[in-house]
Amino acid sequence: MRFDPLRDPSSPSPTPMTSLKTICVYCGSGPGADPAFLDAAKALGRDMAEQGIYLVYGGGNIGLMGALARSVLDHGGHVTGIIPDFLKARERMLDDVQETISVPDMHTRKRLMFDRADAFVALPGGIGTLEELVEQMTWAQLGRHTKPILLLSINGFWKPLLVLIAHMRELGFIRPGLELNYLVAERVEEVLPMLTASARRLGLSGDARLIERRF
After folding, report:
1. SS3 of 73, please?
2. For the CA atoms of the chain, what is the radius of gyration?
3. Would you write out the chain's pLDDT as a tens digit for each of its 215 residues?
4. What is the pTM of this model?
């Protein structure tokens, strides 16, 4: 499926919801050095499929991305992969998914992933994973959405980022009224209950028309 952002009609403003139907997962296109990362990706995929929650992800079939998506599929779940044209060869698309959307650039990919998702989970990954995660945290900080954001900190992977955020807060760069709202889980089995509780408490809302397409 080819997505053309210039022809995409504006959708009506969304109504806040409280149930999770689709989760966008950010994660590495490599497996990482700790086998626990791969195990976590597979376990999260299984849990999502068993709970009937759809996966939206970056479309690749290698690394944590591939393990996550294949696990969802292996357990009877639904997967949507969204991938820019220039990454098709590098990340090797997973052909077995129910829906693959090709987009012209990274900006369109991220906007469409936002549109499709009710919540966001960050598994271990590299700079791309970090950039996608921080962008969602920024949009939430600025009041553009209330969709839950969760860091799955397997074996303390996200601890350095959490230390940096605390450092920013201590030095006055994260000020009262502009706090960051995010969840941190250390075990896969915590992820879905934490997201569900957050969705019930805050509701799920976000309007892509309020979010700039270029940064």
Report:
1. helix
2. 16
3. 655 544 554 443 444 455 899 999 999 999 999 999 999 999 999 999 999 999 999 998 999 999 999 999 999 999 999 999 888 767 677 888 999 999 999 999 999 999 999 999 999 999 999 999 999 999 999 999 999 999 999 999 999 999 999 999 999 999 988 889 999 999 999 999 999 999 988 765 655 544 443 32
4. 0.86
